[in-house]
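User: Hey, quick favor. My workstation is busy. Could you predict this chain's structure for me?
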Amino acid sequence: MNLKRIFGALLTALGIGALIYTAVLFVNSGGDSNYAIRNLVVFGILGIIFFAAGISLVRTTKDES
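Assistant: No problem, here it is.
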């Protein structure tokens, strides 16, 4: 197994985890405080970046055995 594919899978898993955490924060946010909105934006953007980077790294890495 290629090290780039493992790193891509790890980035993808971190991205999925951050997006799930963002969804949990969104559901549990009761008030419209700036702190809650800032957390939603930060974790959502980081989740999207990690997920996209992981998927593209796995897709573009050739499997050489």
